[in-house]
Amino acid sequence: MSKKQRSYWLRLLIAIDQLFNVLLLNGDEDHTISGRVGYKAMQTNKWYWLALEKVINAIFFFDKDHCRSSIEWDEV
């Protein structure tokens, strides 16, 4: 797979992630689920955001602290 094809698929996956953030969490269309969960877990400290953050971080085990590193601080 070429670099251009990888870029296309990565952008497509991010767009799908943003769509589900809007559909499932009523979130902002520019944020991913991971970024929203990381932000909510940090700001509210509520058990369900923290639990969801652990689940997502476990799925993305290869990316240390995935949810909080996905927060787009310039758009929060």
Can you describe what's shown?
The chain is mainly α. The chain has one domain. Helices cover 68% and strands 0% of the residues. The protein is built from four helices and no strands. The longest helix has 23 residues. The radius of gyration is 13 Å and the shape is globular.
Strand percentage? under 5%
Rg calculated over all Cα atoms: 13 Å
Which outline best applies? globular
State the helicity in percent bands. 55-70%
Average pLDDT, to the nearest integer? Answer: 92
Question: What tags apply to this protein structure?
Answer:
76 residues, mainly alpha, 4 helices, 0% strand, globular
Topology:
Blueprint: H1 3-25, H2 33-44, H3 47-59, H4 66-69
Helix pairs in contact: 2-3
How do you describe this structure in short?
Helix content is about 70%, strand content about 0%. It has about 80 residues and is mainly α. The relative contact order is 0.13.
